[in-house]
Design brief:
single chain; 4% strand; TPR-like_helical_dom_sf; 8 strands; mainly alpha; two-stranded antiparallel sheet
Length: 533
């Protein structure tokens, strides 16, 4: 027997989604149709899907989920060397789970789906674009749940907004879900290839501004990401479908910046812009758990030894203050990962010390213009580089790799230069960037294995903590970069980082019958199916 309070809470919450609550948010005022206030509005549902806070660079998502888990498991931020450093925070993963299901993206999508299915057949085609766009985002976010947890409820999830009945969903097989997403993304791309946008769609689309070609490219790019994710598990399928896409760019446009190094980030990348009503930043998300301290390997090894130009927009040298006089450090330096929590806090907490760098404030943590990052051209060119190195020719791989690195530099300088923070850094010239790519220790040379290591390391660096979920998935898939040994925790059962997150306790309790089917593999050392490293 499920907890009655939970069922009542779920029912009230999901029904409020289906009927749209009376609270007048900016989005409600803009998208509710005054001529159809008695029925759910598909246009507004789509906007609500796109407006999910997990698609944005907002405090709660980073403070409680990314920085507490993914960023630690990939060393993309500093984390305190203590006994609980790898322990999953159940309350926070409960929140993440809820924000997808109830009344999150899945709940809203099911209500949207129900409304669409109830339309007369002659009216449905007018709303196909809304359904396909919402579906692309649903598959994007659901694939992240699979990457984090493995099997998840999907096919039977969201029963209340779709049927007015509470029926807890089974856990679908993760491999079958990936296949479903890959095929669904192909269908979505096909639809948008011939779709001509309408004023209604433009109005509802707060992600891609009604750009049908961008939705097509986004769907293809997500498909490319998921195919590469399964490429060690099912290489034949991944190779066949990926190379078909790459060899036919006209049929399969992707988010690659037209292979230009200095591309227009705001026009090409899939970025969820902040709402006009949002004036906060990630300052507290990082500062509350000292994630603004510079991480060892990323700064000391990946960036500094290469004299990487991204160092100036990813980190700040910091410095000491003595007698109210601030003296900046002469160089970038991060604390060794083995530093104890007490020593790290003394170093950063003592104004007369502070010899180590911090995360750059303008780019990342004091920037209320920071968008949610869903897909970038650099990621796609790193995928192309890996595909060509494994299944094509190394010359094409080199071109894609160098383009990806240059685009990553362009991307981070874009974030910095468009920041709400007053301090900006001038982007290096194209000549300086070209020279860095071909002469530093990241230049594309060596054996095939060494080149794949270069690709994996630079892709990890590009994702960083801002795309922590992607960084963790790729680190598990490829094993790159070759990070220094993680400190060992003394907490029994949590000595090392996990290879997956365990299911949140609310799901275990309230969906207990279906949970039995996955209980045996609900451990932190059970790998996701694509992780065959």
């Amino acid at each position: 027997m499920k907890k009655l309070s939970y069922i009542i809470y779920t029912a009230i919450t999901l029904l409020s989604v289906g009927l749209f609550q009376s609270c007048k948010t900016e989005l409600d005022n803009k998208y509710l149709d005054p001529e159809q206030t008695d029925i759910p509005n598909i246009r507004a549902f789509m906007t609500q899907v796109l407006n999910n806070s997990r698609l944005r660079s907002e405090y709660w998502h980073y403070r409680t989920f990314i920085l507490m888990h993914h960023a630690r498991y990939t060393q993309t931020t500093y984390f305190a060397n203590n006994n609980t450093m790898y322990q999953q925070q159940d309350a926070y993963t409960n929140d993440y789970w809820r924000d997808f299901y109830s009344p999150g993206i899945m709940g809203v999508y099911r209500a949207m789906e129900r409304t669409y299915n109830a339309l007369p057949d002659g009216e449905k085609s007018s709303y196909d674009a809304f359904m396909f766009a919402a579906r692309i985002v649903l598959y994007d976010q659901a694939s992240k749940l699979v990457d984090n947890f493995g099997d998840i409820p999907f096919s039977e999830a969201g029963s209340l907004p779709s049927s007015d009945q509470i029926s807890l969903g089974k856990f679908d097989d993760q491999k079958e879900l990936y296949n479903y997403f890959i095929e669904g993304l192909k269908d979505a791309a096909t639809f948008f290839k011939s779709y001509t946008s309408t004023p209604d769609f433009n109005r509802a689309d707060i992600l891609n501004d009604g750009n049908a070609r961008k939705w097509e490219s986004y769907a293809n790019s997500l498909r490319l990401r998921l195919l590469m994710r399964i490429s060690q598990f099912d290489e034949n399928r991944a190779r066949t479908e990926i190379m078909e896409m790459l060899n036919s760019p006209t049929n399969y446009p992707i988010i690659d910046g037209n292979n230009q190094s200095s591309y227009a980030v705001n026009n090409v990348d899939v970025l969820n812009k902040r709402l006009n009503t949002y004036t906060s930043s990630l300052i507290d998300a990082l500062r509350e758990i000292n994630s603004h301290y510079a991480p060892d390997y990323m700064l000391n090894t990946a960036l500094k030894t290469a004299n990487d130009p991204r160092i100036h927009v990813l980190f700040d040298k910091y410095g000491k203050t003595v007698s109210d006089v601030f003296t900046p450090n002469t160089d970038y330096q991060a604390l060794p990962i083995t530093t104890t929590e007490a020593n790290a806090n003394t170093e950063y907490g003592t104004a007369s010390l502070r010899r180590y760098a911090v995360v750059d404030s303008a780019t990342g943590w004091i920037n209320n213009e920071l968008p949610g990052i869903l897909m970038t051209a650099s990621e796609i060119n790193f995928i192309k580089a890996e595909a060509h190195e494994r299944w094509g020719n190394t010359s094409d791989a080199k071109t894609a790799y160098e383009t990806a690195v240059k685009q990553s530099i362009n991307f981070y300088y874009y974030l910095n230069n468009n920041s709400s923070h007053a301090t900006k850094v001038d982007k290096p010239s194209d000549g300086e960037i070209d020279n860095f790519v071909i002469t530093s220790n990241i230049k594309y040379e060596g054996s095939a294995v060494q080149k794949l290591q270069l690709i994996g390391t630079q892709k990890w660096l590009h994702f960083g903590w801002l795309q922590g979920e992607q960084a963790w998935a790729e680190y598990r898939r490829t094993g790159y970069p070759l990070l220094p040994a993680f400190p060992i925790s003394n907490l029994n059962g949590f000595q090392n980082p996990p290879v997956r997150l365990v299911y949140p306790s609310n799901e275990v309790t309230n969906n207990s019958e279906n949970y039995k089917a996955v209980q045996a593999k609900d451990t932190r050392d059970t790998k996701i199916f694509w992780d065959v490293n």
